[in-house]
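ENTRY TYPE: paired fold submission
RECORD: A
CONTENT: sequence, then structure tokens
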Amino acid sequence: MSVGNGFESAREYLKIASQRGSKLGLERISELMKRLGNPHEKIKIVHVAGTNGKGSFCAMISAVLTESGYRTGTFSSPALTGVTDSFRIDCKEVSKKIFAETMAEIVPECEKMSDKPTEFEILTACAYLMFYRQNCDIAVIECGMGGDGDSTNIVKTPLLSVITNVRKDHTAFLGDTLPEIATHKAGIIKKNCPVFLGDALDDDVVKIIKKKALENNSSLFLPDYENFSSLTDSISGINFLYRGINIGVPLGGTYQFQNVVNAINCVEILKILGLNISYSSMRDGLAKVTHHGRFEILRQKDPVIIFDGSHNPDGIRQMSRCIDEYFHGQKIVLFIGVMADKEYGLYGDMLEKFTERAFAVTPDNPRSLDCRILAESLKSKNIDADFRDDFETGVRDAFLYAKQRKLPLIALGSLYMYSDFVKALENI
């Protein structure tokens, strides 16, 4: 692939690779990274797993590291607006040129492999190679699914391993119980490398993480709330005092306070490990953090429009709390599309008391749940729900309904529909 037309060639190659599906296991990524010279072993890495909160956490940590003067790479998934959106350097999306140049090194090596890597394995290799080639001081790497068998878990000696929380999701791959899921996520814990667990509410989960940490002689850190006070929370962000310093984070959502507690706790760990991060840099970095698709206000009024990528029961439960707190009993118009492997039957119970009307759609993804099935599930919970076969028509109808009745429009579900939702809004 030449750089001139390399971006489109790279995208086409990823489309071909996507047909190989999702496969857990490190055999293919190990071979590919070896062929590339194992660049993941040449940079410092913060490795982040967890059911929910990974994206927000990674955005916060990356903003603080960047503000502290470290050249910081960030890899997250899924991409919301285009493939390059998964890769950021100093909190800015990388250029198509950098992406194409990196892929130009990777594709020939993929083609030499008898068991060719999946799309996510290629993206993972691209992240590690790109951040090494671009001279990043540190890389914040988000797991795609689980932990032990996720391709990002090729890293052997992370600076810090982070498990934001353990909830039910991807049960077909990770198991039906929290202990089973926790066992997979504990797989990112490495020998003599510290680990932070951001949610210590479930005793069985904590027990599994502690056991794995002990086996690996890894220091285990749990959330410390001692120095946090004076929390205020609004639709546009949160403010609080930490060690007497006033900190504001411009991310809405009642769940974001837990994410910022985790981020600040991990900043303190990174300082112990020798990174030079001042409290003023932490404050200024958090004040600049951005993260698309998580309680993102896309329109301020007439109607208010919010997109949140809640896609599993815990995420929907958290979002229900946000609706309750921020809209004070006012009904909402719900726009929703989810993947078929989610426990969507639980969503209606959580959203019924808030929803005046729901519009179900099918996101553009082979794993999506048919909008008819989703609408019927919501109807069974006494929600006035309808479906739209055409995604853009669904957005338009939901918008007009919300505008006419002066109600907030809340888009929930798969992050895979974020880009299409935003584009459809622009066309109204």
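RECORD: B
CONTENT: sequence, then structure tokens
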Amino acid sequence: MRLHHAISPKTRPFAVLGHPISHSLSPLMHNANFRALCMDAVYLAFDVEPKHLIATLQTMWRLGFGGVNITVPLKETAFAGIKRLDISARRMGAVNTVSFDSRGMIGYNTDGDGFVLALHEEFGIHLSGRSLFILGSGGAGRAVAIAAASQKATRIVLSDIDPKRSERLARELCCMFRRCSVATAPPEENAWRRASLAADITVQATPVGMKPGDKSLLPSDAFRPGQIAFDLVYMYPKTAFLNAASHAGARTANGLGMLLHQGAKAFEIWTGRSAAVNVMRRSLEKAVYGGGKKAR
């Protein structure tokens, strides 16, 4: 990460916390945003184990941090440990954005907004009337599911390697959104294949794919032409999941757009200002695709 201004005692720090964190592109886009807006601020990344998260956030508050993002696997830990929660975090059951005031921490969740905006930007569609299969029911998968249901998706099928997690989320969705049909699929390849083929949109919301050698959890015959396949992993132009979907004729997108829009929303929460979204976008696309522009 290169900074184009001198760090001084007046520089306002921001950060992202995760475990691991070396994959994160958040510092890249936020520092580009700070430069574009001529802000004396810097955005850093810290590897924090779940057991140390709340103590770390308390220290950051005391040190005067302007705001913090939370990524895997800390979102649910943050939700459990932060007392003051915005309605967005309470609804999602996870925190991905933390702001500070004179009383301490406030937890938010911008993942759902990020997903909805990215999907519309990438494919020009809305979620109303759509069916989804969401593989992974952790913090990010939960945010996607709740965002889809709130946008009037007609059917959502959930699955997770831990069936209890997807079943718990399904129960909550049924209580929150009576008009959305919600079901679960067992963690078996054939069940995943059937659920994916039946869906308009298949979302890969697990950490699988973050490592270059990771294999797709779904084979190519789990997809069909015209279907949308969305992988929340954003570090690579195409994951094995997206390659499998493309091979079957599905339309694909990685999680870069979701990262962008959830980050811009977090910046607005911290500062009350609009982010330089196009500057943030160019910095991300240059890092992932090269040349500064996504190949479409």
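NOTES ON RECORD B: The CA atoms of residues 212 and 239 lie 8 Å apart. The mean pLDDT is 95.
STATUS: closed
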